Amino acid sequence: MEYWLSLMFNFMEYFALLLFFDVFFERRLQGMKFWTAAAILMLCSFFFTTLVHTPFSLVKLLGCLALFFLANCALYCGAFWMRLLTTMIGYAIIYLMGLLTQTGVCAIFSLDYEALVNDRALYILVGTGCDLLLLALALALRQYYRPRGRGKEVKTVPMLLFPLVSLALLFPLHFNFYNVPQALPLLLICVAILECVNIGAVILIGWLQQNALLRERALAVNERLTAQTQSVEALSAAYAAQRKITHDFRSHLAALSDLLPQDAAPAAARYLEELQSTQTERILTVNTHHPAIDAVLNQKAQHAEKCGIDIQFEVNDLSALQIREIDCIVVLANLLDNAIEACAKLPQPERRIEVKALLENTEMEDKGVLFLSILNASPPVQIINGRIETTKEKPELHGFGLPNVREVLARYGVAPYMRFRDGTFQFSFEWPNLVC
Question: I need a labelling partner for 378 at 20 to 30 A (CA). Which of 54, 84, 226, 425 fits?
Fold first, then answer.
């Protein structure tokens, strides 16, 4: 009976800890793979706590922390210090909650620990109530923070003070609980304060992450506005140049009209040759018949050429594209900026970008799909769970390009494909031609 009770309590506490980790980290695995791995790690934790029979010791504390930290590393993605902080706070909250409920019951009913353990029904009730409180707390935190998304990792090293103090105080608190029953009221107050401090630390971390997320979004919006402004300026410049050519073209037609009736064909031919030699610069490098996409592609093409990058385009008629222009601009501008930045880190002969933007008909989509592929030379990159961490200084101010792209594509149900091979990075996807 004790074995199964211990297994049940361990399972509930471990499940609460996983929900707690869900607040701050993204899972490495999904579905049954996640729960299978979690079950194996939970059994390892249970066997360890079963082997260590003492209610509390330094070996048990360090062993449990190590196992919980291993579970965090195996099941979730995150930075080292953030993992360590959440593991220590999670363990402190779990153990303090158990001590708080046991101390409270003993104080209310004037019992010592041995009497509580011997009363099987009361002990089960207290243990179940403790684990339900942990689950309720974890669910509340997960519900409050998770829907709003996570920001980047906050500075966690100073906050290690909260769980370190709590874990250090567990030893004298346990000594008083087991051996000094008359100190129960004071012990109850101390445990309650420590538990509130650790819960407050969790709320503070969540608040800091929310602020980091809001800052990220503000910077992302600024990047989008900058990209749109540059694209509009490029399009305006192209149209202004086109109007100038149209105006000059009328003068050229008038000159030719004067020459041809006078049987001055040789003079007209020389005039045309001279005119052709002066029109070597193309106003529009790319023409898809879609103003917004033309603006982005031509503006980025000019930027790439200034950086000494060989950029090639394969496009077709995109005039029938129904995807929102602002979404097209965000995706194209960010992807091309990333490609240009990656190429700029290489020697000039190696710099190249290949862009495909093709509106294709498919049987699955009545209005077709936009196939977009950007392939560029790049230094080595590591793709982990569909993410590429920025290597720039002050990373909190960078690394929004791909997240912005993923955010837009996710609204259309698009899963992009990323690959790095033989010095070439590729980002491609099929985008349904619809308004979202």
Answer: 226
The mean pLDDT value for 296-304 works out to 87
What one-letter code names the amino acid at 249?
F
Q: What is the CA radius of gyration of the chain?
A: 32
d(CA 75, CA 418): 23
- Does residue 362 contact residue 368 with C-beta atoms inside 8 Å? yes
- Give the contacts of 215 (CB within 8 A, at least 6 positions apart): 151, 396
| Contact (Cβ atoms closer than 8 angstroms) between residue 372 and residue 331 | yes
Sign of CA pseudo-dihedral 210, 216, 217, 219:
positive
* Least confident interval from 3-12, 302-311, 417-426: 3-12
Query: What is the pTM assigned to this prediction?
Result: 0.54
* Contact criterion met (CB below 8 Å) for 166 and 198: yes
> Running DSSP on this structure, what letter comes out for residue 361?
-
CA distance 228 to 217: 16
Distance CA 289, CA 294 (A): 7
Distances (CA, A) of 263 to 260, 268, 273: 5, 9, 17
> What pLDDT is recorded for position 376?
94
The residue to which tokens 């385009």 are assigned: 313
Contacts of 106 (CB under 8 A, 6+ apart): 112, 113, 115, 116, 177, 181, 184
C-beta separation of 23 from 145 below 8 A: yes
Residues 6+ apart with CB under 8 A from 32: none
Asked whether the beta carbons of 401 and 335 are under 8 A apart, the reply is yes
Tokens matching residue 179: 């051996």
CA distances from 405 to 232, 337, 387 (A): 19, 12, 11
Closest CA to 167 of 137, 200, 197, 206: 197
Q: Which residues of 253-280 are buried (b: 16+ CB within 10 A; e: fewer)?
A: eeeeeebeeeeeeeebeeeeeeeeeeee
Q: What is the DSSP string of 44-56?
A: HHHHHHHH--SSS
Q: 385-432, pLDDT tens digit by residue? A: 666 755 554 444 334 468 778 888 888 889 899 999 889 999 999 999
Q: How far apart are CA 332 and CA 90, in angstroms?
A: 42
Digit-coded pLDDT (tens) for 23-53: 888 888 888 888 899 888 888 877 777 666 5
Eight-class DSSP state of 355? E
Which residue in 308, 300, 297 sits closest to 352, CA to CA?
Answer: 308
Q: How far apart are the two ends of the chain, measured CA to CA in Å?
A: 57
